[in-house]
Write a structure and sequence with these properties.
Mean pLDDT: 79
Low-confidence stretches: 105-109, 415-422
Oligomer: single chain
Radius of gyration: 23 Å
Largest sheet: 4 strands, antiparallel
Strand order of the largest sheet: 4-5-6-7
Structural class: mainly beta
Number of strands: 35
């Protein structure tokens, strides 16, 4: 199942099977929905809204609505369940973070102190279930204990400008933060609240950061048009700088086997850097006509998906550098991509500036990679699942490709061929 929140004040629950249909609509908010989350057991939903409220919904009963924990005095920007599902966290524009007991019918909140000058943009429970990470728009992050005392464990001060991104190491014992202050800082969640290291060397704001799968290398991409590699355990100086891009770097990603590093740039290109030879040989993937904002490797590391401000997602072969297919139909830049392998196949989830989340299924048919749109959060999206375009006359190659991406099957006739017009 997939959940979405909308400007129409509703939360919707969708099936992501082949039918990709709407299951339920939750009504009750009086303004746009800013955040949603499932409980770990999948039996509850929580939503946060511009109407200053958090709402808890049940997926098991007919009425669905459970409670409205009250207390925030401004928009709720982020919500999250603890891993045991017993605690709910909400962060708000009112400069507070609140923890709510899900089992407590009165929902008495605990409110961490010390956020009078902060706007909470993100709340996340760590895998150990006891710590809450609070990312603020005021250049700091905080770790809190969620026990009865509810005391702040650590406040991560150090950056002198906006924090653009944070990423946890694979073992979740450390995390890195990138900033407009041109630095990357490495923090330990178990040590004192000061950076373990500060990596300096970029000459412009840093946007993209990524840990290698073994957690030993940190990659960073900057507006100074360079990608740098840093050793997490050794010196704070970069041990390698890649300078082939001619515009800002917005995203970096390691392949699952750590043999390849990808960087996406404002020059519309993706560079693949070989990490298993001293020469760090590179390969350029060209095809986008605008900045590459997001990238994701397939779980087997053989394919890369890239999202761009040119309103497309492209799938590339890592071995050959060949463009496998282009996903079109977006009405805005593609800012986020996630790739998931399940027993039912390969799936891509995309988020774009046209305010839509889309779920795509990837199917290998011989030498061809077929992409099918299975679900979209917008109601106006084209659906053509199962429709046949076999032997259709007068259909352009571009329109045929779009129809196939949206589920159509078959091949139209090329111009000059004779067939039945459907």
């Amino acid at each position: 199942m997939l959940v979405s929140g909308s400007e129409d004040h509703t939360v919707k629950l969708w099936s992501v099977d082949d039918k990709a249909h709407l299951l339920k609509t939750f009504e009750g908010h009086t303004s746009l929905i800013l955040c949603v989350a499932f409980s770990p057991d999948g039996k509850m939903l929580v939503s946060g809204s511009e109407d200053n409220t958090v709402k808890l919904w049940s997926l098991d009963n007919e009425t669905h609505f459970l409670k409205t924990p009250e207390g925030h005095t401004s928009s709720v920007l982020s919500v999250a369940f603890s891993l045991d599902g017993k605690t709910l966290a909400s962060g708000s524009w009112d400069h507070t973070v609140r923890l709510w007991s899900v089992d407590n019918k009165t929902y008495f909140p605990k409110t961490p102190k010390g956020y009078a000058d902060h706007i909470t943009s993100t709340v996340v429970f760590l895998p150990n279930g006891t710590l809450l990470v609070l990312d603020s728009l005021n250049e700091t992050s905080k770790l809190w204990s969620t026990d009865d005392k509810l005391h702040p464990l650590k406040t991560f001060h150090g950056h002198t400008n906006v924090v653009t991104s944070t990423v946890f190491s694979p073992d979740c014992k450390t995390f890195a933060s990138a900033s407009w202050d041109k630095t990357i800082k490495l923090w330990s969640i178990d040590d004192e609240a000061r950076p373990l290291k500060t990596f300096e060397g970029h000459t412009s704001p840093v946007y993209g950061i990524a840990f290698s799968p073994d957690g030993k290398i940190l990659a960073s991409g900057s507006w100074d048009k360079t990608v740098k590699l840093w050793s997490v355990d050794d010196d704070t100086r970069s041990f390698k700088t890649f300078e082939e891009h001619i515009s800002y770097i917005y995203s970096v990603a390691f392949s699952p086997d750590a043999k390849t590093l990808a960087s996406g740039s404002g020059d519309g290109t993706i560079k693949l850097w070989s990490m298993d030879n001293e020469a760090y040989s590179s390969k350029a993937l060209k095809g986008h006509t605008n900045s590459v904002y997001s990238m994701a490797f397939s779980p087997d590391g053989k394919t890369l998906a890239s999202g761009s401000l040119d309103h497309t997602v492209k799938l590339w072969s890592i071995d050959s550098g060949k463009l496998l297919t282009t996903i079109e139909g977006f009405n805005g830049g593609v800012n986020a991509i996630a790739w998931k392998a399940t027993t039912e196949g390969q799936w891509l989830v995309t988020g774009s500036s046209d305010k839509a989340v889309r779920l795509w299924q990837l199917q290998q048919e011989g030498d061809q990679l077929r992409v099918i749109l299975r679900w979209a959060s917008t109601q106006t999206v084209l659906t053509a699942a199962g429709a046949s375009i076999q032997n259709v006359v007068g259909l352009s190659a571009m329109n045929a490709q779009l129809l196939k991406q949206h589920g159509a099957v078959g091949n139209p006739l090329s111009q000059g061929e004779v067939g039945l017009v459907l």
